[in-house]
Amino acid sequence: MHVQALSLRACVSAQRPSPAPSSDDTRHLLRAAELAGSSAGLSAPHPNFGCVIAHGPKVVGEGFLYAQGTKSAEVQAVERAGEFAKNATAYLNLEPGDCHGDDSAVRALRQAGVSRVVVGMPHPLPHLHGKAISALRHGGANVEVGGHNLLESGSSIQEALKACQLVNAPLLYRAANRLPYSVLKYAMTVDGKIAASTGHSAWVSSTQSRQRVFETRARSDAVVVGGNTVRRDNPRLTTRQEGGHLPVRIVMSRCLNLPMDAKLWDVSTTHTIVTTQKGARQDFQAMLVSRGVEVVEFDFLTPRAVMDYCYDRGYLSILWECGGMLSAPAIASGVIQKVMAFISPKIIGGITAPTPVGELGMVEMTQALQLSEVAFEQIGPDMLMTGFLQPIPSCQPEVPAVVEAAAALDTSIPSSTERPQVISFYKPWDPYGALSNFSPHSISLPDESGAAVSWNSVEHYYQAQKFRGVKDELAQACVHNIQKARGPEEAARMGRTLARQRPDLVRADWATARIGAMETALQAKFSTYPVLRDLLLSTAGAVLVEASQNDMFWGAGRSGNGENKLGLLLMQLRSQFLEDSEDLNGRSRTAGSATAVS
Known about the structure:
This protein has helices at residues 2-15, 23-36, 73-81, 104-112, 131-138, 155-167, 169-177, 207-218, 227-233, 282-290, 303-312, 324-332, 403-406, 458-465, 473-484, 488-501, 510-528, 530-537, 565-597; strands spanning 50-55, 58-64, 89-92, 116-119, 142-145, 181-189, 222-226, 248-252, 272-277, 294-298, 317-320, 338-344, 372-379, 382-388, 422-425, 443-446, 452-455, 543-546. It is of the alpha/beta class. The two termini are 36 Å apart.
């Protein structure tokens, strides 16, 4: 009876005409988009979520997703709104959908009694698209979606919807093009030079502009440079800040004509990947590997090949800080979506002085590439110009209002009816991403004294176990900080950094104990959450592969010859669950027969 009433209310709500957006709607949706970008630089790029809960012009609660695996924006906003969330309107820049099996956002809005939800855009990833919208409608909320049933009222609401697109531009590009979102950044003089004819380039732009570059790096998964930049500038490509996200440094060099002692070979704080062609300077490759640098060989090294590789690693946003020799083929291959040009009020002249972009083969001005969405900003004495080489993909698909709202939702099993032979997982927001250690599912396990300790994710628990029982203040402090880390990325960074810098603090038996630690954490996770257990069981018959490109122990590695220990443990746990289920069904049948005989 309750379900029937709920479905009826959902259908009525879905069919009810939406009121024309007010100035309040525009203002709150813009604020949700602004909140969504608040985590930039604090954690690895991920889908950005912001939530504003309001009654008319009055805001009663706000929140944003700090990082993957942390409390959702909607939950935070509801907690801050308290009883004022009842019958309020929730404004979301993006349809909820952080990870399969995590319905906390929708559940919080429904339980709080939010009556209306305004969504800036549907989720662009197919396996998450429309699910939360349908669930909210199924719960009785009136849901209005930008570009669908949100009635337009001039340019103001369009500005808000554009803001919702911009804050998740990397996700939209990745979903539409199966490539990361790439920004080409350079600094040049007013006469178009990025260095003197001698190659000297320190410094073209001002201190203020360089600070903006550091901030942009912190918002990126990786920074790409070519061999010329390494040889001439010897950069560090860090963010120059304490804490926060550190991007991977990627060097592209076909022949590996690189210096033996470059700052990028120091990987004590962040990772470096050198990409090259097969067979190039094997002795130099061995030297890099001995220093902890990852070397990736390609049959033919091109910007597109490297971006395909970055896509497979789950990267969303890439910053290119290369010279003209690399930027030209990157633009020509279509992997650059946005340009970020710092123009300094200097003139250096010189016919042979390098320019930001090398030869593109254009002979007429009519062939010039035109930037769109151009914006200007003065930073110190410099002018920053930004613009898009490729338009931002739109995400305005049809979202059924009545049919999906009336249907019973079962999100525990993936929608695909054809089970693949191999199921890969890596990032939490991808299909089967809930199998990842970074998924937003906390676990509780006993400590050495037997007391229950809560961990925010499997990754939190695993990283802390590296130093369990080590009688050292630094190790014990690291365990404490890992437990308190807001997101699994931070927990991983803390554990990996200390283990790299102070290997003497890692417990002596860790090489063998790590399997048991991971097994314990996985058992707790999939036993605690039925929806995750169902997801794992739904993969029966398929091979599970942790698709990490650089982890040869837990993952499969780029070439697929890694040990894939995480995938093996999950398949082992799946077999255990299947056996338990068969035993339970067998006992149930036996008990039923005994009852019938008696």
